[in-house]
Amino acid sequence: MALSCSRLCSQLSLIRLCGPGINRIAHGFHLPNMSRQSRQVLCRHYRSSEVRRGLGRYVVSKLQWANTKYEDFLRRRFPRFFQLYQTFLKGFKVLFQDANEVGRIRAKMSYHNMEVQDLPYRDMEKLREYRRNLIKAIPSVILSIPPFANYLVIVIMYYFPRQFLIPVFWTPKQHVEFRGVYHTLRAQHHLPVLKGVERISHQNSNDHLLSRLKELCAKVQNGENPEVSEILAVRSLFDGPPLGIRTMNANHMRHISRLLFLTPRLPGFLIYWRLKSHAVELLLLDRALSKLGPHQLSDSELRQACYLRGINSYSLDVYQCREWLSQWLQMSSSLKESEVSLLLHCIVFLSANYPNPPSSHKQEA
């Protein structure tokens, strides 16, 4: 029985059905046990399958042809829009890949019962970046919900890409330009943060640590780059009142929020909660990066890491970025979780004058 079934299967594989009346198969084989009606049913099945496959290939080829013609038309008539169109396609591809990667990371965390702090640096950074991108994309999604509103959203995104598009949809030129704009907005809060710390240091000038904090602020305002040892010498002042993460006044926290690109237009308790969450997250990233080693980062990863921590790395060369990141990790690796307030202030202390002091500081000095 097994032999006859295998022989029948081998014969069926040689069948070439050309019409319902054909009862012969290739190489002279016949199917004596199959009725004419059964052969007709089998013939119709294979014929319909072939027709469907052929129709599918025809539709796909026509769509590819139309898409090629459309892209050629855009490239010739609207080169700027074509560049944005290509960037959108690449952006959606990257976003889809990121979503799959985040799903893989979360599945690994669930399977191995891991916490965020147990993840390697790249996985931790991917979760952070993907969450930030989704938060920024939410307003655009909400605006596109009403009927035909998606066309308005496309127009708004075309004219205001920095405000409405997440970085995966930026062109390389826009990436450098927009990062520079955001860093300029961040740098506007360097001086208010320094002034706020300086006011606190004047409260009791007899205290040795407060005097050293005052000297540190004066050094930064004069356009100098402080040493890591000078910053760590006053670390205990950021572990409790008045500069601890729990005891800072709301106005000072709002200026620090701007350093992390967080909105300050929230009640004080929400600003504190978000600030603490981002500070602890940054500290965990630093610890994971120290384990990995900054020399393991690619150039793009290195620039992104430096930009997150306070400098406009897209205007510096790779050597300067590595040098600055090494200083940051030297400082960060010495801190406890209760001292994360100092980590946030180091966005000003270490980056305000690196590699050269801004012209505004020079004029004030």
List keywords for this structure.
365 residues, single chain, disordered N terminus, 16 helices, disordered C terminus, mainly alpha, elongated
Characterize the biggest β-sheet: none
How many domains is the backbone divided into? 3
Measured distance between first and last alpha carbons: 99 Å
The total count of strands amounts to 0
Topology:
Blueprint: H1 2-12, H2 36-77, H3 79-112, H4 121-143, H5 149-159, H6 161-164, H7 172-187, H8 190-201, H9 208-221, H10 228-232, H11 250-259, H12 268-292, H13 299-308, H14 318-332, H15 340-349, H16 359-364
Helix pairs in contact: 2-3, 3-4, 4-12, 8-9, 8-11, 11-12, 12-15, 13-14
How would you describe what is shown here?
This protein is mainly α and 365 residues long. It folds into 3 domains: 2-75; 78-169, no CATH class; 186-364, no CATH class. 68% of the residues lie in helices and 0% in strands. The relative contact order is 0.07.
Briefly say what this structure is.
The chain is mostly helical.
